[in-house]
């Protein structure tokens, strides 16, 4: 399709589509990766945050972050269907099966079943150009910064699937913004993104360097440290109840006079 045509099979991720490759138009000219007059492609999926807000707000611990792989998974047996995760996610990723009698929360689990067996996620395995790579966070971050430092127009052997797969595809170096989205955004995400287009134009939110989860949990831990807040609240309630009883007793005495 042309720039003015229909690019996407659906506009967003859904309960049946965990990854979307969106065509983002920045103008009417058929120039790829032109921030003012062209278009770009953007992968939309779970970012597998370093400190996930969805996990923090889940009251039943149905969402968990694997301490080894970093994958954020969901437990159907623990989920109570509150959908707090939907409201908390800054990327609006978790989707709920409203039309099902026994609904589930659906999102990308980074093919955790494949990773557990030593494989890699399907998106990285079947990407033919190396646009999606799978690997250790620190190595991928190093690769991302290496690409940013390359000179635009030079040739580079882009790794495909993983950094150690041995597969390479030679291409001219693209123009990148001097920024790795996900290195610090929202406390960091394990899905890192490079782009020539400003990230806000790609639909990615501008986030602080800390997660909402770290801020809210820090406040909770401060308030509840030593159980001072619950004790103070209990004393306050007891005092209020005591005053209420005293007033009632005083009213009864006045009524008998």
TrEMBL record:
Domain 4Fe-4S ferredoxin-type: 37-68, 70-99
Gene Ontology CC terms: cell envelope
Keywords of the record: 4Fe-4S, Iron, Iron-sulfur, Metal-binding, Repeat
Keyword Repeat: yes
GO molecular function, one term: 4 iron, 4 sulfur cluster binding
Compartment list: Cell envelope
Tagged with keyword Iron-sulfur: yes
Protein name per UniProt: Hydrogenase 2 operon protein HybA
Organism: Caldithrix abyssi
Lineage of the species this protein comes from: Bacteria, Pseudomonadati, Calditrichota, Calditrichia, Calditrichales
Name of the gene: hybA
